[in-house]
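Possible race condition, two jobs.
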Amino acid sequence: MTAPYVLALDEGTTNAKALAVAADGTVLAVGSAPVPVSYPQPGWVEQDAEDIWRAQSAAIAACLDGVEGAPEGIAISNQRESVVCWDARSGRALGPVLGWQDSRTAEFCDWLRSPEREFSVAATTGLSLDPMFSAPKMRYLLDRVGAAMPDDARHARIGTIDAWLVARLSGQDSYVIEAGNASRTLLMDLATLQWSEEMCALFGVPAARLPRIVASNADFGATAGLDVLPDGVPIVGVLGDSHAALFGHGCRTTSEGKATYGTGSSVMVPSGADRSVRPGVSTTLAWLTDRPMYGHEGNIVASGTAMDWTARLLGVAPGRALDELTAAVPDSAGVSLVPAFTGLGAPWWDRRAVGLVAGLTAATERGHLARAALESVAHQIADVVEALGAGDLTVLHADGGATASRLLMQTQADLLGRDVVVSANAEVSALGAALMGFTRLGWDLPAPEGGAGRRYRPALDEPARAAARSRWGQALARSRFAPPPPSPPAPPTCIWR
């Protein structure tokens, strides 16, 4: 007989996973399935909501094959800013999922932009006025649903991936959004933890149509009408993926932060009750239980994406083959790669920045370019840590697929001048979500991972670190040089209310 467990669902950008996590934190079984991503136009990043559901269902089925009995509860970790609009009656998606990397609403954000509005947005939501966040995507989808399907628009629901998954799991009985995910929409007031009427009016998203904001360990409803799970399994915890990683690492003070190395990257340091705004980075709600835990965060648009792009360009497989190529040379030989494929995120928030390779010479080899791609990830993380002003940060916990590269992790420690500890658990986001579910079930939390895992200590002296950072800064400056933008277009008509 399998011990009692929580089924943790981790819906990421490119993979859906399911883990059975016992009360002592032991992972009993794992299932996974890939999730396709499409790029129909430059700057557009889309997914099919049904593909996400099929992948998540397959991951659940594979995981449950390895355990006996039904789970005591379900917990969810999800990609955060991505948006889906669906029919409340059928659960059918009414358009594509607009991925968090999607920048098609950049012109709309530019049209809204003014010093007064940027100040108001940051002061209310803790976020920058940027197309990465959910509100402009919501406006885009609602306008198009209203234009193309006016009858369906009356029954349309819209939310982040967690809201949609909860609705799907519960047979459309629950229409809620977890507070930490809501804090990534540009629509939630960080002080009240409710939808801001001012922000909803600014972006043209009707507050009455948004899901109800609930705590991270709230009653999210229970399963109903599913092939892969019995009816009545409670949904006991939800966290955005980066927030789940922070919770799973056991980071509770400003001395320990985390970096997630995925398609993009998130660097986050908990701040307790401090929700002050810092230039270039976001203030976010990490989780909400009996009281809010805020955090300061920087979001990088392209990290794993940069590695995959470089591997494709060089004709090698991503992962180990690319890592071997980077290890074949001692350094990048002065080559810098800035992966601004859809602009730059934190701390620059420059959607006009362009991707570039600088420092090429006749002596440049494939390994140098591969090394430059690897270094670009570490430099971007270092940029965010500097912007966070994390002076008392002593340890950066690392998770995500790219942490398998020892060279990347050592480079990261070198450029930060701080220890980097790679998680011993490869699925720390799913584990963090499961632990949040434990708090709902009344289970004791196992001891946090803390310093477990492989530790990398800085080996680069300060002059060499300063020189490397200077070269990167020069490449960034070239990436961000652009002519003045054209006059902003007229705002799109808001068809749907």
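Job #2 (started ~2 s after job #1):
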Amino acid sequence: MRDAIFHLKRSDTISLQAQIRELLVNAILGGQLVDGEPLPSSRRMAENMGVSRNTVVLAYQDLVDDGYLIARERSGYYVNGALVGDKTDSSNDAAGKLNDAADNPRAPDWPGRFRVQPSKQENIVKAIDWPSYPYPFVYGQVDQQLFPLAAWRECARQALGRRAMDAWTGDRLIYDDPMLIEQIRTHILPRRGITAAPEEILVTMGAQNGLYILASLLFTGQTTVGIEDPGYPDMRNIAALKTERVIPIPVDDEGLPVDDRLDACDYVYVTPSHQFPTTATMPLQRRMDLLARADAHDIVLIEDDYEFETNYVGRPSPALKSMDDDGRVIYLGSLSKSLFPGLRLGFMVAPKQVIEEARALRRLMLRHPPTVNQRQTALFLSLGHHDALIHRLHREFHKRWETMDAALQHYLPASAIRPSFGGTSFWVRGPENLDAEALAARARAEGVLIEPGRVHFLGDHRPHNYFRLAFSSIATDRITPGVRILTELIYGFERI
């Protein structure tokens, strides 16, 4: 770290040499200077601190004598990690405490300053090391073996070429890559029966970014928001940051019911194609009834079509937005399920007035999603790679869907809701006395990852016996053995 800047807070109680020593020791033990890292030259350090070069040389030599630094002739001074060793971890803890308001009376009272504390909300938790498990029934992850890496690299090469530089090198302020907008408008939306003008489409950092933008634009403390129960926890948490009037609406085997519980809502969040997390698909007549009720009671519907590319069983149902004649549906889509979640690209389709305000708010948040990512994705779509990937995913997911269905019917009959239009997961209802969170802990020790379902429910009396089994990132031949292990663990719980 030869170019690092060190700020010396001068003290009249100890010498400058001792102050420099203390500063560097804290940096080494705190992890800011790591093993083998070079220090600035004595001349540069002296100029930086406004002290004599000799003072710095003496401090460096003192640290060499104590083993913190290694002096290399004609090269400089380097951190000696062999001495620091085990000190670093404990010192990091100590360094962290220096910035903790509880231990520093002069620090700001951060908890008292927070208007909201999202960290206190209950969220979905996923094991970051899920690929290391033999039976990862985790949702929303990608099977790298199915992804066309060579095609993605070719699109990256083209996007980074001289001809495409104008598309992504400049600051576009509020505007998206017109090529990606056109691909969404002409390539993706027609598959959902949706027609939209370019000014009715906004690229987002994933669908969730779109949800947050909408909540920030539309929700106040007096807003009533209807949420599916069970439903998407992040939408519940986003809404809860803006209003306390979040109404859970229990779903059935056809998704969100259409009844008088909706009438008091200003907005209703709905996942009609694959209800999250039950995977239920809303039939056409109920969709028509929902639109009619929304019109009668001036409700705006927020449609999250999060798995729009995974309808591979039966005939795909049209999006709510495709049936919307009054601009009452705001549509959100994501490319995470068909490409990969780390891409963080989604889109919003809404009336022009909504998109204009959403675009202006997005500018204040992040200006726009990275344009190089937008151009690369646009090329991937335009060259047909996305279509080929979807066909490949459909074939593989169909196999896994059938294998999962057969395994559950054999080992846990009548426990799972069978997705009627594909998707990437099964929603499982275990025995009434099952604690799915305890099951998840036991299963993890056996190499099986599942997702307990309690976090998806609202209210004080949430069931504990539901869990989700996803198959997008697990090999087909591992599905049945994984379900068998789960079954053995569940029966063990029953005996307890």
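The two ends are 58 Å apart (CA to CA).
Logs attached separately.
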